[in-house]
Design goal:
By secondary structure, this protein is mostly beta strands. The protein has 3 helices and 20 strands.
Length: 287
């Protein structure tokens, strides 16, 4: 069997079944902040639970890491929020460049990436992704990213919220889910204690579930630091969930230091209730 090219897409498999495709070098326009992404991601039964460049937000790229403000550079894509002006088209987009795989297996990989803007490398990332079977109808995507400041000076990560737009603390791990025809209200969202976008968005919770027609995603911060980040949630405008790196204030990363986050996502067939979601998250995080 011929070995895949070093930077060819990775097909993640669980129990021999393909459940995700990781694209390392997408050909995208600069305004989308080109970056590696996972799409499609599917349940074990084959239902797709991600979306790529939808018409409502063409810069939403499946599952990955996206940050709207790294020292003023846009690694999220699309417009930049400018206080006093609102969302504004700027020529400030960065790109995440795949460097190499330290490990590449059917059930996961370890990757090095370079975050580049205006011709300079700002961050070096080490990304670790693993796919694990939980049950006959559920598997877990374990996603860890470590961002190291490789510049000689201080660097910080911001969001539209830290730049003056309330409720818009997006930036970090982000999962764009699929819009479903015939579901104008979007998927159901709930935690162990509450439900609904208005109640869950911007809050901290050990886990958060997004349930559509025949599928459920359960997101969990898998470290103490990650659990302190609030959740960014959209269900009405579009279905998406992220873990916010910069909510009330910017996240500083001094020279040579590293910020690390780990999010584990349960991908399940069917609509899980609270007890089922909590049990699968406990199993996923403990593995």
């Amino acid at each position: 069997m011929t070995a895949p090219a070093p930077d060819a897409p990775v097909v993640l498999r669980v129990a021999g079944r393909p459940v995700g495709r990781y694209v390392t070098r997408p050909e995208l326009p600069a305004r989308l902040s080109p970056r590696p992404y996972l799409h499609p991601v599917t349940t074990l039964a084959g239902t797709t639970v991600t979306e790529l460049s939808p018409a409502d937000h063409t810069h939403h790229l499946g599952v990955g890491v996206a940050v709207p403000d790294v020292e003023g550079h846009n690694f999220w894509g699309g417009r930049t929020y400018v206080q006093g002006q609102g969302p504004t088209e700027l020529d400030n987009h960065g790109a995440q460049r795949h460097g190499s795989f330290q490990l590449r297996d059917p059930d996961g990989f370890v990757e090095e990436l370079r975050w580049i803007a205006a011709g300079a490398e700002l961050l070096r990332e080490r990304r670790t992704v693993a796919a694990t079977e939980l049950t006959d109808t559920a598997w877990a995507l374990d996603f860890t990213f470590s961002l190291t400041n490789v510049t000689s000076g201080p660097l910080s990560i911001g969001s539209p919220a830290t730049n003056g737009r309330p409720g818009a603390a997006y930036g970090g791990f982000f999962w764009r889910a699929r819009k479903e025809a015939g579901a104008p209200q979007g998927p159901q969202v709930f935690t162990a204690d509450t439900e609904g976008e208005a109640s869950v968005h911007g809050e901290r919770a050990d886990w958060l579930a997004l349930a559509g027609a025949g599928w459920t995603l359960v997101f969990a911060g898998a470290t103490d630091t990650t659990r302190r980040d609030p959740w960014f949630v959209r269900t009405g405008e579009y279905p998406g969930v992220g873990s916010s790196l910069a909510s009330a204030e910017r996240l500083p990363i001094p020279p040579g230091e590293t910020a690390v986050r780990r999010v584990v996502t349960v991908v399940a067939d069917g609509r899980l209730d609270r007890d089922e979601a909590a049990a699968l998250v406990r199993k996923a995080v403990s593995q």
